[in-house]
Q: What sequence folds into this?
């Protein structure tokens, strides 16, 4: 049985709010340097909160800090503050049925919370308390570090983690915000990092400047103004995201093939792709995304139809454009195969990829995919979680909240010429990285 908060949060928004004119219902203000975005809905008593501030792994790497500091700083947030220990905080949240978590992504610390309307002041207070005054207990730090080391050791045996690691390290050069340290580098860093280094990172990067806080549900801006201004008053600091990186370029063919052997696995992952040089707001990004959806979006994409349905070679195979929120991103195909089917699956995938790249998409495919993308987008806005996530990603990508209404129109306006031109302009199968990870078939 779902809790009242979860059950309410997946209730569909009123049609008037989940259709054209959504931006008219958005309230956006700077409150003590924080970009606060409020979207009231017809759902009663429930509020979903999402937020972000620049404090991710890429910022530590850019400053040549210990690469474990960003993750460990985030892990210390819910381990007690200078006001109360972690058990007291957990008791407060559990007492009202609320949830609150912090996660680290490439460039950002992410905040996600959900609560009843009446408990919103308490939850915002706890967000502020944990962000502003973590206790940084040495005992809790050692626990957090052991937990992180355990997670990294598990990642070394994960086909998904090792595949993503190898792909991103090959596609993005060292120094690029999307280039990641290896899991081994993270492991070494986690075993040697000190609490002092974590504190230094925290004091340098945590602050209200460039922080975004989105609230969706039974909420209004005047109430939020009062609470946010009270609990975040006089908090200072923070930096901007890394937005000015030199775009990555496709890797020369001589470096294109990578294998990562992990014994004893029942599946392998194939990844094929390259850097696009495109950020989300660049004109060619949307046409490329629409064309890519024809190739590999869901069960109706060309790849699933050919490689899975017709040939029975894969559990699942998809294509997408990724990691372009703050810097230029990548394009990739990712498929999962039984080890004995990997070679045939690779050949089939490459065949479909080359055909799509060389001949482009058809007008019929484009029309169908536009309808699908617009429908999926609108369904994604039909609950508080989806609306909050979309609002946050929209503003982090540098778009105004009016993009909520403009996106379906922009998709519908994409032309066949724009799609096929973008595919040829930014992709080249002969320069793509090919990564095979798992228990690989013998030659």
A:
């Amino acid at each position: 049985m779902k809790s009242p908060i979860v059950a309410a949060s997946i209730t569909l928004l009123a049609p008037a709010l989940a259709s054209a004119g959504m931006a008219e219902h958005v309230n956006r203000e700077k409150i003590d340097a924080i970009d606060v975005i409020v979207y009231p809905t017809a759902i009663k008593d429930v509020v979903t909160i999402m937020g972000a501030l620049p404090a991710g792994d890429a910022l530590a790497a850019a400053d040549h800090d210990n690469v474990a500091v960003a993750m460990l700083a985030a892990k210390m947030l819910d381990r007690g503050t200078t006001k109360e220990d972690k058990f007291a905080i957990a008791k407060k949240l559990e007492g009202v049925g609320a949830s609150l978590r912090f996660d680290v992504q490439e460039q950002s610390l992410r905040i996600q919370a959900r609560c009843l309307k009446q408990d919103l002041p308490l939850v915002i207070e706890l967000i502020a308390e944990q962000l502003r005054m973590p206790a940084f207990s040495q005992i809790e730090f050692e626990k957090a570090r052991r937990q992180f080391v355990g997670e990294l050791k598990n990642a070394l045996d994960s086909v998904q983690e090792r595949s993503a690691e190898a792909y991103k390290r090959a596609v993005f050069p060292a120094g690029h915000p999307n280039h990641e340290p290896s899991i081994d580098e993270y492991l070494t860093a986690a075993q040697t990092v000190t609490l002092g280094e974590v504190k230094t990172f925290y004091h340098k990067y945590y602050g209200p400047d460039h922080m975004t806080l989105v609230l969706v549900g039974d909420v209004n801006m005047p109430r939020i103004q009062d609470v946010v201004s009270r609990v975040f008053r006089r908090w200072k600091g923070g930096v901007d995201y890394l937005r000015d990186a030199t775009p990555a370029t496709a890797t020369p063919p001589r470096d294109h093939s990578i294998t990562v052997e992990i014994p004893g696995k029942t599946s392998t992952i194939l990844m094929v792709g390259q850097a696009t040089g495109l950020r989300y707001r660049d004109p060619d990004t949307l046409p490329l995304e629409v064309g890519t959806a024809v190739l590999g979006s869901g069960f109706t994409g060309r790849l699933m139809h050919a490689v899975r349905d017709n040939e029975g070679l894969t559990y699942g195979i998809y294509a997408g454009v990724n990691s372009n929120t703050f810097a230029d991103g990548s394009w990739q195909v990712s498929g999962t195969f039984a080890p004995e089917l990997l070679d045939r699956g690779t050949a089939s995938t490459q065949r479909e990829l080359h055909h799509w790249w060389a001949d482009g998409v058809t007008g019929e495919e484009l029309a169908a995919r536009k309808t699908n993308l617009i429908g999926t987008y609108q369904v994604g806005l039909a609950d508080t979680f989806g609306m909050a996530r979309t609002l946050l990603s929209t503003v982090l990508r540098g778009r105004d909240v009016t993009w909520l209404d403009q996106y379906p129109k922009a998709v519908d306006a994409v032309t066949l010429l724009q799609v096929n031109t973008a595919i040829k302009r930014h992709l080249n199968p002969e320069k793509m990285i090919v990564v095979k990870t798992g228990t690989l078939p013998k030659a």
Q: What stands out?
A: Residues 121 and 227 are 6 Å apart (CA to CA).
